Automatic annotation (TrEMBL):
Coiled-coil portions: 86-164, 213-290
Name of the molecule in the record: Zinc-hook domain-containing protein
An example Gene Ontology molecular-function term: ATP binding
Highest classification ranks of the organism: unclassified sequences, metagenomes, ecological metagenomes
InterPro entries: P-loop_NTPase, Zn_hook_RAD50
Length: 403
């Protein structure tokens, strides 16, 4: 997600900024100069050490030859007295001891130089690695700026999404209430279906009665032939009663069938509305998830903005501290900074100067006109240095009036 990528970029940029600070401390050019000087000193000491070892060997050889010589000098073959021989041996021994001592000192010095040279070479390699590490810093900052812009766009859309979610929630609540009403109607429809079953049972009874009526008619005809007129009239009255019952049942059956058709339509409408409710609930959940994601992104953006503002203020204050002595070369005001007062949402920026006692005082309302002008000029130049570090010049439009 965007906020995760933004937090990762912020962490990477912070790490590369620390690497940049470490690289600044290493000072590659100064390190290269020191390394070159150490290499020269190492070669010089090595050459001197080699010469000392060679001289030690020569002196040892001369002493061996002189000790083995008799009364004749081994070099010039002139007569050599014993006292002169001992004197020469003593001189050569002193020279040998001095050279051995010097060689030991040079060996220790060469070891120390070699150790320092290795350390400087390691630092050089570290500086090269750091330079490669921070090469991607501008690209990462540009990517962070792009992601911040995307988050700002999301924030602008967030109120619309929340309003749409609120309206949809109201609509869903209305649909839910309507569904409750439809559930009541559905219960009534079930009752109607039960009535339908009852009507079916009545229809069966009607058919049975109709069959019974036919049977009675046949019996009546038989009875008319077999019995008297009074019995026939009684059967006729019974027949007419059965006809009235049949008509009443048929009328009730037609009404129940119409009621069943209406209830079926109502059931279909309830089913469609229930499907609509399910779709609305899914959409509401989707919008709620989107709103939670946007809230998380907003929190990440706030943290990133606070970090960027703190880094920007630190950079401006550092630049103003370097410029202040050049702009204001007097001893009554020894420093300048841009301070942030208030909380994160209600913060304000205050330009302050430091007096001889080390107290920070606001420029507005305390400093003189010239001091305010110098402070504003330092602030302008610091902004230019921080916001456009690669630009080597600055243009001020009527600075006397608009600082």
């Amino acid at each position: 997600m965007i906020h995760e990528r933004l937090e990762k970029l912020a962490s990477e940029i912070e790490r590369k900024n620390k690497l940049s600070e470490e690289l600044e401390k290493l000072k590659s050019q100064e390190l290269a100069r020191l390394t070159e000087e150490l290499q020269l000193e190492f070669r010089r000491a090595g050459d001197e050490l080699a010469a000392s070892h060679a001289r030690v060997q020569d002196l040892q050889q001369v002493m061996d030859e002189l000790a083995a010589a008799g009364s004749t000098c081994p070099v010039c073959e002139s007569p050599l007295e014993e006292s002169k021989k001992q004197q020469l041996l003593k001189e050569r021994r002193e020279q040998l001891e001095a050279k051995i001592k010097r060689a030991a000192e040079l060996e220790a010095h060469v070891k120390e130089l070699n150790k320092n040279l290795n350390e400087k070479l390691k630092l050089q390699r570290r500086a090269q690695l750091l330079e490669k590490e921070i090469e991607e810093l501008p690209a990462r900052e540009a990517e962070r700026s792009q992601l911040s812009q995307q988050i700002q766009n999301f924030e602008r859309e967030l109120p619309n999404v929340r309003e749409a979610t609120r309206k949809l929630t109201i609509e869903v609540e209305g649909v839910r209430k309507e569904a409750e009403a439809l559930r009541g109607q559905f219960t009534a429809t079930k009752h109607s279906l039960q009535l339908r079953l009852d009507l079916d049972q009545l229809e069966i009874e009607r058919k049975q009665n109709f069959t019974e009526q036919l049977r009675v008619q046949r019996e009546l005809q038989q009875l008319r032939r077999a019995y008297d007129e009074a019995r026939a009239k009684e059967l006729e009255r019974h027949h007419e009663e059965l006809i009235r019952i049949h008509e009443r049942l048929r009328t009730e059956l037609v009404g129940k069938e119409q009621l069943i058709v209406e209830k079926r339509k109502l059931i279909e409408s309830i089913r469609e509305k229930r499907e609509t409710i399910v779709r609305c609930e899914v959409e509401v959940k989707h919008l709620e998830n989107a709103a939670r994601s946007l809230t998380t992104i907003q929190a990440a953006l706030a943290r990133t903005q606070a970090t960027m503002r703190r880094e920007f203020i630190d950079g401006v204050n550092e630049a103003m501290s370097e410029l202040w002595e050049s702009i204001y070369p007097y001893g009554d005001l020894t420093g300048i900074k841009l301070a942030v007062e208030g909380g994160e949402r209600g913060s304000d920026y205050v330009l302050q100067l430091r007096d001889r006692a080390g107290n920070w005082i606001p420029v507005e309302g305390v400093a003189s006109g010239g001091e305010r002008t110098d402070a504003c000029l330092a602030l302008r130049i610091a902004f230019a240095i921080v916001l456009a570090p690669s630009l080597s010049w600055i243009v001020l439009d009527e600075p006397t009036h608009h600082l």
